[in-house]
Prior knowledge:
Elements: E1 3-8, E2 11-18, E3 27-35, E4 41-43, H1 51-91, H2 96-129
Antiparallel strand pairs: 1-2, 2-3, 3-4
Amino acid sequence: MDLYFRIKDNGATVFRINDETRQRRLNLQPIAEANVRNGDIKLRKDVILTDAETTEIKRWLDARSAELAAREIDQARLTIEHLNATANWISSKPDPAAAEAMNEDLLMAMHDLRAAIVRFKSKMLDQKDV
Length: 130
């Protein structure tokens, strides 16, 4: 199936690829909007999807959801590395003005992160008790 997915924040615009034009140029016809968050496929007016196109769009949505979930885990691991690098920087006696400029923002971000983790762990413990 010849579909092209133009990725955007919440999914993709889906195009049907037509290469059978007179000059052999690719023609991209927008046919749908695919939403990764809720799995919705909204068709453009006057467009009817084939079963194969519907299947391919759903397959793309599943693959994209898995890719984004994996990316979130990678982002969390990178955050841990950044936190460790920041701790090393602070421990190595940085320029006092540079450290002072970052102290409040770092402390607030770490406080917010800690609170979010505590809420998550509490929620998980509550669900275990049910």
